[in-house]
Design a protein that fits this description.
The structure holds two protein chains of two kinds. Chain A is an alpha+beta fold. Chain A has three helices and six strands, in the order E-H-E-E-E-E-H-E-H. A four-stranded antiparallel β-sheet of chain A has the order 2-5-1-6, with helices on one face. In chain A, strand 3 and strand 4 form a beta hairpin. The longest helix of chain A has 13 residues. Chain B is α+β, with helices and mostly antiparallel strands. Chain B has one domain: Methyl-coenzyme M reductase, gamma subunit (Lambda Exonuclease, Chain A), CATH 3.90.320.20. A four-stranded antiparallel β-sheet of chain B has the order 2-3-1-4. Chain B is flat and about 55 Å long. The chains are: A alpha+beta, B alpha+beta.
Chain lengths: ~160, ~250
């Protein structure tokens, strides 16, 4: 769950990002001091075909792979369309822009400020995490999945 | 017939393309060469070379009731042979795909016999007898109506029409039925339209460049293309239809 005192930004690239580009971008962003949380949004790339006549068969996809961010493995489950960030304060934004400028060179992007992360626990969150959930975890992973958020160590 | 079909209003290149594709008198430009076998593999309804399964005996072998309509309308090859009804479905990216769902349904209705097109927001399905379908699908895929990067043959899990493109210019596909071979600049289908892996890759031609796409698209797009509002004739026509439809129950007077 988010806290209103922390500013949030959304990076909107003109194209959906490949895993290689995402990896480079996240490594630069995670190294910027003052980034609290990072969330990747985009259309899902499931491991098996979720519906239709081929339901349940394996779904090999070159864009669904594991990337390495600051020494931690991150399993990409989406084709990255948005990168949502929660920052310590607004002074961090120029560092985020510099990271984007370095990586996103083939097409344009924009950075928007606002509130993009989940602010309240939903029923699904309550069922998964219970009443005493860690607020910083709410909204960071699909509550229906068995995976939690990845914790990146040692950048602060 | 006393009048000549006009197909649609508009003075922009987009409107002109819409009219061209709908007009059965216009010969579609052939830009790639996918074989019958390739089409059969991608559609996945039968194995290449296999006999057509039938839904009923050939018309010549069954007793037809005495019907004046049946005498007037000549059956298509597929209907004559009693083929099953099968489908092909397309998803078209809003980023300057040559056709879009409504356009596809219009042009198929004008150009082909015995088809049942169905239009949805981001995809379009056409159903007909199997051997007729293969003939029509070949034309739909091999001509300027199709671009291998911005159009997809997708029987299920069609999402992609309104999404941003991937970095390599391909439309998003959750099942990644086709991949772009960057070295050969060639799109290859590795799965059939419902997402089952193919035994061999099927080449779907090179993706066309932006200049070609913008010259051949039938989609208005205010970012980088022709904006709908810039085509005054189109707007005037649509507003007139809207006005007449709204007033129809009362007194449609122009």
């Amino acid at each position: 769950m988010t806290d209103a005192i922390y500013p949030q930004v959304r990076i909107v690239p003109e194209r959906l990002l490949n895993p290689e580009t995402t990896e480079r971008l996240l490594n630069l962003i995670a190294a910027v001091a003052g980034v609290r949380r990072i969330l990747l949004n985009g259309p899902r790339l499931p491991a098996t075909v979720p519906y239709g006549p081929a339901h349940g068969t394996e779904n090999p996809h070159t864009l669904r792979r594991t990337i390495r961010v600051c020494g931690e493995d991150v399993d990409l489950q989406v084709h990255v369309g948005y990168v949502l960030l929660e920052l310590e304060n607004r002074d961090v934004i120029p560092g985020i822009k510099a990271a984007c400028d370095e990586v996103i060179t083939e097409f344009s992007y924009s950075i928007k400020e606002g509130r993009f992360m989940k602010t309240e626990a939903t029923l699904a969150d309550f069922a998964k995490y219970g009443p005493d959930a860690d607020k910083s975890v709410i909204g960071m992973a699909d509550p229906r999945s068995r995976q939690g958020p990845v914790i990146i160590q040692g950048t602060k | 017939m006393a009048y000549k079909a006009q197909f649609g209003p508009g003075s922009s290149i987009v409107a002109e393309n819409r009219r061209k594709y709908m007009n059965p008198g216009y010969k579609l430009e052939k830009i790639r060469d996918m074989s019958d076998e390739d089409i059969v593999l991608i559609m996945g309804h039968r194995a290449p070379g296999a006999a057509y399964p039938t839904a009923h005996p050939p018309l010549a072998e069954q007793q037809e009731p005495a019907c004046p309509i049946r005498k007037m309308v000549a059956p298509t090859e597929g209907a004559k042979a009693g083929d099953r009804i099968r489908y092909i479905q397309f998803a078209d990216s809003m980023f300057f795909a040559p056709t879009h769902p409504y356009e596809r349904s219009y042009l198929e209705s004008y150009r082909y016999r015995g088809v049942d097109p169905g239009t949805l927001s981001g995809r379009q399905i056409v159903e007909c007898r199997e051997r007729d379908l293969e003939k029509y699908a070949k034309e739909l895929v091999n001509t300027e109506l199709f671009d291998s990067a911005r159009c997809g043959i997708r029987g299920a899990t069609v999402h992609g029409h309104s999404l941003r493109l991937a970095e390599d210019g391909m439309m998003f596909d959750m099942l990644q039925r086709c991949i772009l071979d960057k070295k050969a600049n060639m799109v290859k289908y590795v799965k059939n339209q419902i997402g089952e892996p193919l035994d061999k890759e099927v080449k779907a031609g090179k993706p066309m460049d932006d200049k070609w796409l913008k010259a051949h698209t039938t989609i208005f797009h205010s970012l980088g293309g022709v904006a709908y509002r810039d085509d005054a004739e189109y707007i005037e026509y649509v507003q007139r239809i809207h006005s007449l439809r709204t007033k129809y129950g009362f007194m449609p007077v122009e």
